[in-house]
Specification:
Length: 428
């Protein structure tokens, strides 16, 4: 194990990797229920969606752990599942079986890019300011998700967002958990994030912030899943919209994952790992369509395991195995309250904001597009849409200021692709 994962070289131990893997699992396990619920709207049976999510997450995490030796998690992506259900199936009029075929096609395109020089060309064409902005924007999005899940902020008809009910047990326990989390982190207590989750969960149970009644072991109905596995439909393969939508989905996948993987490998200080991480992510997307779910991504919450000390693929493998075992423990998983997970997400988000010092504010043609990405990722609740606006604005600003030579030719094509994506999304 030491020889394969190079634990000493990366300054970690088996204990740290297992702890980080568990913390990673706790922060992303919500995807099992949430993703299955969204897929159910598209017509995929709930139990089948649960199994598809678990199996895809298991295979994705183990694959990237073995292939790239990084603690990155591959799970069905939030936003992409919404795109699958609401854009492709409901608005586009395709069946979920045809949607799965599109996921497969997008995966093939992604694999071609990831395993050829195209990946290097695309990555090198992205300016450093935009790469840093993606990391920061994701950090703010994590903070927003943390506050939203805990009920500290809520939607408002007049101001978009407003303060939530500060008297609710969940909000109070979240604030207490946040203080505990920050203190344990500052003092560098071993297993600080895991300890924070455990303490906050106990407080939630004691003070009514979590319901433990009716907890029991159960297994999903696999008979439904056999009606979803491998059920890709090519009935619309002669339809041009089928292929345009597949290309659009592939484009969102490529750029979102490039941004996410850059952020995670940057946290690890191992940028050389990004190539294999991207390759594993691409193959995972390919398998998503076969296993019956929306595409996987290099999860934002991977930062939780990295912050907890995860440095190698062992962290991802531990998380993947726990996903597989969770088939038996879905009711128990639901017992971990938002008030225990939210402080972790908020802390990670704050830590990711530190990258803003790497963006030069002296050149407005660099900083303005970057700041748009930072602001729009959380405001649109979409990494892909926030990135798109910044990537379009960057060459526009450079050209208007007579600095067109500073732009990599590939960036023009990227901007055009993002514009095309918006056209396809809103016209068709």
């Amino acid at each position: 194990m030491e020889r394969f994962f190079k634990l000493k070289q990366h300054g970690t131990t088996i204990g740290k990797e297992f702890s980080a893997g568990f913390i990673s699992y706790i922060t992303v396990v919500y995807i099992i229920i949430v993703n299955a619920t969204i897929l159910a709207v598209a017509g995929i049976p709930m139990e089948a969606g649960i199994i598809a999510t678990i199996l895809t997450s298991f295979i994705g995490c183990v694959m990237i752990g073995l292939w790239s030796n990084t603690p990155i998690l591959l799970i069905p992506g939030m936003g992409l599942n919404a795109m699958f259900t609401y854009t492709i199936v409901q608005s586009g009029g395709f069946t979920w079986q045809e949607g799965l075929a599109m996921v497969f096609v997008a995966g093939v395109i992604f694999v071609v890019i990831a395993f050829t020089p195209l990946a290097k060309v695309i990555t090198s064409s992205i300016p450093a300011s935009l790469k840093e902005a993606i990391t920061i924007g994701i950090g703010i999005l994590l903070i927003l998700i943390g506050f939203d899940n805990a009920g500290i902020i809520t939607s408002s008809e007049h101001t978009l967002l407003a303060i939530g009910d500060l008297s609710s047990p969940t909000v109070i326990i979240t604030f207490i958990g946040l203080i505990i989390t920050v203190l344990l982190f500052i003092k560098n207590v071993p297993g600080n994030l895991l300890l924070s989750i455990l303490i906050t969960s106990v407080l939630a149970i004691l003070f009514g912030g979590s319901n433990v009644e009716g907890i029991s072991l159960s297994t999903p109905d696999f008979s439904e899943y056999f009606g979803v596995f491998g059920q890709l439909s090519w009935a619309q393969a002669g339809n041009i919209i089928f292929w345009l939508t597949s290309i659009s989905l592939a484009m969102v996948l490529v750029f979102e994952n490039i941004g996410l993987i850059h952020g995670h490998t940057n946290m690890l200080k191992r940028p050389e790992s990004s190539k294999k991480s991207l390759q594993a992510t691409a193959v995972s997307v390919l398998s998503s369509g076969v296993f019956g779910t929306s595409p996987t991504v290099a999860s934002v919450e991977s930062a939780a395991g990295i912050t907890a000390g995860g440095r190698t693929g062992l962290t991802s493998i531990v998380t993947g195995v726990m996903f597989l075992v969770s088939i038996l423990f879905i009711p128990v998983i639901k017992m971990v309250p938002a008030s225990a997970v939210s402080p972790i997400l908020i802390l990670i988000g704050v830590l990711m904001l530190q990258n803003i010092v790497n963006i030069s504010m002296e050149d407005f043609t660099e900083s303005f597009p970057a700041l748009l990405i930072i602001v729009l990722i959380p405001l649109t609740y979409s990494i892909a849409d926030g990135m798109a606006i910044g990537f379009i604005m960057y060459p526009v600003m450079k050209l208007l200021m007579g600095k067109g030579k500073e732009i990599h030719p590939a960036l023009y094509m990227i901007a055009i692709l993002f514009i095309s994506n918006f056209v396809i999304q809103y016209v068709y």
